[in-house]
Specification:
The chain has 8 helices and 10 strands. The chain has about 350 residues and is α+β, with helices and mostly antiparallel strands. It has a domain of about 100 residues: Roll (Pdz3 Domain). It is globular and about 70 Å long.
Length: about 350
């Protein structure tokens, strides 16, 4: 088996694990609030093993991709006093949000394990948002601009934790000026409409490179720093999702740029194959899996019908309508909305999958 095939196999397996973890979040919080769960399944397709314990059927299915948690009354049609719809709204919101919470947790744990591995391997440095100096010819150094030792706190209102946060939010700017907040000698300094733009610099090898001309400091990786960086990684991944949505809505990216499971698995294989060693390849693969986990957590909480975020949003809207009209709207209306959203979502998924397969060839 080639290493690329190994990485792809890991990607397929881990993609299924992420979905199973998501459903485990729904299952665990449902049990916590004494909501009846009819079935909890790992995998999809025909069952190859099942066992009933109490009121819940546990099953293992032939395809190791995903799973599901069948909660009593989740479709709105149940008279059982322990049904999903019979519980207080705050408990239902917790159940719906638990899937994304589980994905966020697994993403954090994967990132933390990677950092702990780097920490155990020896001295390892992580980039910060603290200025260590400037490239030769950089025009931004000065008392009315940036100084060595400045800690960049935010760019255009976005909190900055590391150099990649800085690069991400600079890419979202208008390309001309930005508002930068710094910490300098214990004080906050704000540079409004600062003309920080990409410039051409000598790369030291006879060529040129486009950079902002800033050099950033690094911290030695220790256990506290590993915990901090793992959390910062999750925050960065979530921000990348929002940045991607901004690109999509602004027209800077199109639906052809979207990727589904096929594209993600291919990307996992690619990042693994690009590494020089197997260890680096596995680290790259699991780093991308952590990103996908956080991506699933954020995307699933968007207020789109058929997604958990859509269910929470419609639940709050229908509750508000009921308060205003003094009567509860028919639950069939909500089910129709989510059914329509599911059809559109499946159509988009089919298009993205077809597009991913087309890109392979």
């Amino acid at each position: 088996m080639s290493l690329n095939v190994l990485y792809i196999a890991i990607g397929i397996l881990m993609f299924g694990v992420l979905i199973a973890v998501h459903e485990t979040g729904h299952f665990s919080v449902s049990k916590l609030f004494n909501i009846k769960v009819n079935e909890f399944s790992i995998g999809m397709g025909p069952a190859i093993w099942h066992r009933e314990k109490g009121e819940t059927k546990y099953s293992l299915r032939v395809l190791p991709v995903g799973g599901f948690c069948a909660i009593e009354g989740e479709d709105g049609s149940s008279d059982d006093p322990r049904a999903f719809t019979a519980k207080p709204m705050w408990q239902r919101i917790c159940v719906l949000a638990a899937g994304s919470g589980a994905n966020l947790l697994i993403g954090f744990l994967i990132a933390l394990c990677l950092y702990l591995g780097y920490c155990a391997a020896g001295d390892y440095l992580v980039p910060t948002a603290r200025l260590a100096g400037f490239m030769e010819g950089c025009p931004y150094e000065g008392a009315d601009g940036l100084l060595t030792g400045d800690r960049i706190l935010s760019v255009d209102g976005w909190r900055v934790h590391s150099t990649r946060d800085f690069s991400l939010f600079m890419s979202l700017s208008d390309g001309q000026t930005v508002d930068i907040v710094l910490r300098r000698d214990g004080k906050r300094v704000k540079l409004e409409d600062y003309p920080l733009v990409l410039r051409e610099y000598d790369d030291g090898e006879g060529g040129t490179v486009w950079k902002y001309g800033l050099l950033f400091d690094q911290d030695l990786l220790t256990l506290p720093v590993a915990l901090r960086e793992a959390w910062y990684d999750c925050a960065y991944y979530a921000r990348v999702v929002w940045a991607s949505l901004q690109y999509l809505l602004s027209g800077r990216a199109g639906v052809n740029d979207l990727s589904g499971p096929v594209g993600m698995v291919k990307a996992i294989g690619d990042v693994g194959a690009q590494a020089d060693t197997v260890g680096e390849g596995l680290a790259n693969v699991f780093g991308l899996i952590a990103f996908i986990a956080v991506n699933l957590a954020v995307m699933n909480m968007l207020p789109i019908p058929a997604l958990d975020g859509g269910h929470i949003f419609s639940m709050l809207v229908f509750w508000l309508i009921g308060k205003i009209l003094r009567r509860k709207p028919s639950p069939k209306i909500e089910s129709y909305i989510h059914a329509g959203g599911l059809v559109l979502l499946l159509g988009l998924m089919a298009f993205v999958m077809f597009n991913d397969i087309r890109k392979l060839f």
